[in-house]
Write a structure and sequence with these properties.
By secondary structure, the protein is mainly alpha-helical. It contains six helices and four strands; from the N terminus they run ααββαααββα. It has helices at residues 2-8, 11-16, 46-80, 82-88, 108-116, 154-183, and strands spanning 23-26, 29-31, 127-132, 135-140. The chain has a two-stranded antiparallel sheet.
Length: 193
């Protein structure tokens, strides 16, 4: 995570060895880090990194082979349907029903890819692929339904109101800062942030 890397290599943590401020990785995960040891940047010899280079080349080849296999499966699924193509390729197939935007199942990346695919039209089921967690997922959309505001519970409505209020507050804050920067000369000390 870039936030963790920035903190780990910040001058204050490297020099002092103190713990960082809390770093929020997700709504449910926050970490603190402390630099115990730091060695300055230095070039390594080929004998020191040879195995890592070989492993990186192999991993790149495996990724390209997996992507080619996923592309072939997408092509076959467009012709015969995903269940038949997966069976012919002897691959496991799962189903994810009632997927909603923002869901984490099967993964956040996959759900975002599902929502980027156009809706099924004229009995043609769209097939796509995405990379999630170092693996390729080939998927087909059977149906898309618009949300029904009547099915939203009062708790969900309150949560949405709070989210919209926070977003509106953030926009107002940004607008205030932009207006203040136009009106006043503000000098930002980046080294103190």
């Amino acid at each position: 995570d870039q936030k963790v890397l920035r903190a780990a290599f910040s001058d204050s943590l490297v020099r002092d060895g103190t713990a960082s401020d809390p770093i929020e990785l997700s709504p449910t995960r926050t970490v603190l880090i402390r630099v115990i040891e730091h060695r300055p940047e230095a070039a390594l010899s080929l004998s020191q990194v040879g195995n890592a280079v070989v492993m990186a080349i192999r991993a790149d080849r495996q990724r390209k082979a997996a992507e080619a296999a996923a592309d072939a499966l997408v092509k076959a699924a467009k012709a015969t349907g995903l269940p038949a193509a997966a069976t012919a390729a002897t691959l496991a197939m799962g189903e994810a029903n009632e997927v909603r935007r923002g869901s984490f199942v099967p993964s956040r990346e996959a759900v975002e890819a599902f929502f980027r695919v156009p809706r099924p039209q004229d009995n043609l089921i769209p097939v796509g692929k995405t990379e999630a967690g170092g693996q390729f997922i080939v998927f087909a959309l059977r149906a898309v339904r618009d949300g029904d505001i009547g099915q939203v519970t009062e708790a969900e409505r309150a949560q949405l109101r709070q989210q919209l209020s926070q977003a509106s507050g953030s926009q107002a804050q940004e607008a205030f800062v932009r207006a203040a920067r136009v009106k006043y000369k503000i000098k930002v000390a980046e080294d103190r942030l």
